[in-house]
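Human: Note token order:
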Amino acid sequence: MKVGTMESDLSAANLEFLKCIGVNHVIGTDHRICGWDRLGHWDAGELTDLRKHVEAHGLKLVMLGIMQAQSIDKEDLPNIVLATSGRDADIERFLKCVRAAAKAGIPAIKINFSVGGVLRTKPAVGRGGALHTALNIDEFKTPFTKAGRITAGEMWERITYFVQKVIPVAEEVGVRIACHPHDPAMPLGMGMDDRVLGTIDGLKKYCDLSPSPYHGLNYCQGCMEESGASQEELLEAIRYFGTRKRLFLVHFRTIRGRALHFREAFIDEGQMDMLAAMRAYQEVGYEHVIVPDHYPQIPGDVDRRDSRAYAVGYMKALIRATGGETD
């Protein structure tokens, strides 16, 4: 199984650190690279140089992020989600990035079809004084954006339009498009967007929008825990998406608590049986990258390096414990 991390910093120093802790695959998360500011999209030649830079440090650049998990008010391609008059123009910019990634030898792109981004309240203190992101619905204030209210029906129309425009091109050039769930699922009708991709059923419906093998998920099992899914439902979801080859990237994390009242957790202290989860990925023959995510802030841990190293080591041990080999 391919062990990786998601990184906005692709400097030599950070790549060397990642290599030291046993990471061999990297997902670049900063889309404002390789000609974006100059062209409004990526340049294939500059992406090729970036890929070679990563490879020079013994790692592989296997995916890039675009359409980030942030407020739509900060998104660089907002019209795709807002369905305004500039939607087709923004989709064309996105497709130019897809074509550039293909030419540069980067096989996948991750996206978030998001209005509010990752929704949390104040951090929670956990084991040893570590800080974790958390959500307490009793303290939550709806983040109103320029999108206004978007119903579930409207959101599905916009997602479907995007998929129909993008996936044929992605399939033509051989680039997988991995969609991240909404984080977290929220009750419908709260005055913001209905977060239809926040549940297992929502992700199943999303996958059904196209039969293409280039249409799939950046599957975050932590998000599915946040939706209130039981452990058996979580394991069954891995089997469902895995046997259908719709898992293009896995976020391997867990929480403590319940839907709308939770905090994130170290990889070994959440309520999900992470050994059982890893075994399920092995059983379905998952072949792409698996990464830790949302690292706790350990006191004194600059840039969360200790937290990253701990999560990567634990994941590699689970892979070995379930009969797999790490790449």
